[in-house]
Write a structure and sequence with these properties.
mainly alpha; 0% strand; elongated
């Protein structure tokens, strides 16, 4: 999580220059790909110490991409809600507040999900599906040519 937080700060200026939608889509694709490789390679349930470096690299990629996506998403809000700056400010504030509690809540939910299933693999399949859907929604509404709210 520290890596993701540092990436958010570092990538904010790039998101301001490039635009939020493209970076959000790219970060979603990196997280999706890393998650799928993690599950399909067996690095989540290693059978040898040789798989540990792959696990670490893929998890770091997920956290790095999460930080990039966080910075770019925060860049998108003022553009998406440009018709109502007050509403945009509210969305930024609410999202920031939820993000402050997110690590505590998500850590608990992730631990509970893995404990209940006995394996991290089903959890990561669900997360991969989430990354796919979220990235597709971002691309459709905010990035594709002729989209509803280019950002």
């Amino acid at each position: 999580p520290l890596v993701g937080s540092l990436m958010r700060v570092a990538m904010g200026p790039l998101a301001d220059k490039v635009g939020g939608a493209i970076l959000t889509t790219l970060s979603g694709l990196v997280m999706l790909t890393s998650g799928l490789i993690l599950v399909l390679s067996g690095a989540l349930t290693p059978t040898s110490m040789g798989q540990f470096p792959l696990f670490v690299v893929l998890m770091l990629l997920i956290f790095l991409a999460s930080g990039v996506g966080n910075a770019s998403t925060f860049r998108q809000y003022p553009i998406i809600f440009s018709h109502s700056p007050r509403q945009g400010a509210g969305v930024l504030g609410w999202t920031g507040a939820v993000a402050a509690y997110g690590p505590f809540v998500w850590t608990s939910l992730i631990g509970l999900a893995i404990t209940q299933t006995g394996s991290p693999v089903p959890f990561f399949w669900v997360i991969a599906a989430y990354y796919l859907v979220a990235t597709a929604i971002n691309w459709y509404y905010y990035q594709r040519r002729g989209c509803e709210a280019p950002s």
